[in-house]
Amino acid sequence: xxxxxxxxxxxxxxxxxxxxxxxxxxxxxxxxxxxxxxxxxxxxxxxxxxxxxxxxxxxxxxxxxxxxxxxxxxxxxxxxxxxxxxxxxxxxxxxxxxxxxxxxxxxxxxxxxxxxxxxxxxxxxxxxxxxxxxxxxxxxxxxxxxxxxxxxxxxxxxxxxxxxxxxxxxxxxxxxxxxxxxxxxxxxxxxxxxxxxxxxxxxxxxxxxxxxxxxxxxxxxxxxxxxxxxxxxxxxxxxxxxxxxxxxxxxxxxxxxxxxxxxxxxxxxxxxxxxxxxxxxxxxxxxxxxxxxxxxxxxxxxxxxxxxxxxxxxxxxxxxxxxxxxxxxxxxxxxxxxxxxxxxxxxxxxxxxxxxxxxxxxxxxxxxxxxxxxxxxxxxxxxxxxxxxxxxxxxxxxxxxxxxxxxxxxxxxxxxxxxxxxxxxxxxxxxxxxxxxxxxxxxxxxxxxxxxxxxxxxxxxxxxxxxxxxxxxxxxxxxxxxxxxxxxxxxxxxxxxxxxxxxxxxxxxxxxxxxxxxxxxxxxxxxxxxxxxxxxxxxxxxxxxxxxxxxxxxxxxxxxxxxx
Length: 564
Hints:
The chain starts with 6 loop residues before the first strand and ends in a 6-residue tail after the last helix. The strands form 7 sheets. Strands 22-7-6-19-20-21-18-23 form an 8-stranded mixed beta sheet, with helices on both faces. The protein has helices spanning 15-26, 73-80, 112-129, 139-157, 166-181, 195-214, 245-253, 311-317, 333-341, 415-422, 425-440, 498-505, 514-517, 541-558, and strands at residues 7-11, 35-39, 51-54, 57-60, 65-66, 100-104, 108-110, 238-239, 260-261, 266-270, 281-282, 285-286, 290-294, 299-302, 304-307, 326-328, 343-345, 347-354, 371-375, 397-400, 407-413, 455-457, 471-476, 489-491, 526-528. The longest helix has 20 residues, at 195-214. Helices cover 30% and strands 18% of the residues.
């Protein structure tokens, strides 16, 4: 009788799942060794990668950037499959634009004399938090370094270092900055702005950008101590000309038809943490230890299951009131506690198509729409424009997706991102139009008289009436309410740590358990992959890629397939 082949089932056809499947299927030493299957709950592959089109341009509904091309496996694959060039325009094909206009609510373009110091302060504080700012040589950077050290000492001296958040550190840094310059001459602002209010608005603008980078809806929930563990690849950040889906399709292309099963949503994973001496036999062999239950009532047995679902789905699964994605018996406490402590947020993108009649005359004399960075009044300020909806006030920018594009893009995080999912297209267009009005409409003359020290007034920017800017259609992502994801990506929240990310990656049953060593408990029944299982590259596609390789290699090594 022929020996039964081990059956490996991968749950999820995103970056982690397809990387694992690709590795297991193509490893020469594993040929004909496994039965391999990928089950995907949705109707497409890619997971949180989803390339689309809007306004004739190629856009990304999910993952967008290769975060540093130096050493990135995503960049290497993109090079190999010639995905870095395209005849069709694509999102952020120009990279990060340096031709931005930072404007304060009311229509005043900010002068570099007030914009640059606050921007440099914020960047230096974040560099310090991320462990990238050593004691510098230049006087300006040294000043910011000392402010960062001072902000940190204030918290540690109060015995609060264990609960320090990035948000509280940033705000203490801003306070220390104000304390350091309080004796300087106070510049006069204009009707609705003082110098200090402008500085706070600029600082908040950068905080809002950071919220979308991390998916932390509130930076006061983002752990400070873990921030320095996160690693970036060196060199520039770029987007993929032929779309992120080209990488996904490449990984899947080696798999034979039928290996990926779409529309197969798992409801329960039944496993055997303590073994079962009296397991039923299947065709003369011991039954496989893991049983998958699907939402359609069907089942599937497996020897090993690689779970690549999002942290959001895992969080919902450990909620006893939720009927989603259960483990039977429940996951051990070390795993559920890590799932509970780690942060997982919502980031959504909003694309807007500008009417062709506005495409070239929004900024008089220019073919380009503005790369607009917005400094808002505080949401509770009596000076704010009450017509601007609350969900617009914590987005930092509204920019063309590349020079001369008629498609604008804005990013949203947290509660604003969830609100965006519930709004109608008409409500979105009205809210954005009202906001554009406040920022691009010419200020009243009486507000300009004392503004020259803080802003460029109306000298160097051509403002227009917002009624000339018409949006014809919108497209927004809805990651928060998608039951297959329930959010965007993970972060280390206050109260959690990098150790929780390591706990996320541990397979079950735990390696080295007494029962497993006796041979009673089948090993490696449930393995975990995905961006939220990588300690230093969480929240990224390359982190997901690395995690898929890790779990595939774990199984290859278990079966003495030495190729890694």
